[in-house]
Here is the input.
Amino acid sequence: MVRMSRVIEPLPGYSEPYGLLAAVLLDGTNEWRWEVDQELGPDATTWRARPVGASIGAVFLHIISVEVFWFEQIALGRAMTAEERKQFMVDEIDVDEGRWPDPPAQPISWYFALHDKIRARTLESIREWPPASDVIAWEGRPDRNRTWVLGHVIQHEAYHGGQIVLLCDLWQHREGAGR
Here is the structure.
């Protein structure tokens, strides 16, 4: 991804506050992805800094699955397909329990492409969202609105994007490439 300007403007064609928050999401993604070595191979994306710890690939899949879950399933009521659940390793990854399975042995470019595909879908789905004032009633849990959903995914991705940057740095240091 190309680094964006430091001036954030709402994306055209989106109602507010969605246009501004979608622009913030894109900027945050560009920021951490800019820090990741674009040439990482499968050895790097599957490497763990400690036994049973997270890998770049597994964290990337988690970021992607959370985006689909919140933006499509919760915000629009569209369930993730069985194929997507399998591809994103939804049933295998459990962040709260520290369960990080082996992700597909693919170069970082594969993960970027998958993320880009889902992000394009995300941006289209946000255009369909009802007004920000509408509340989402969700299985007896506290009500949320779509503005909260966007904010939640922004902070979630920033947190895990930072983990990917750190894992990339640790991988490079381990391999003696350092920065």
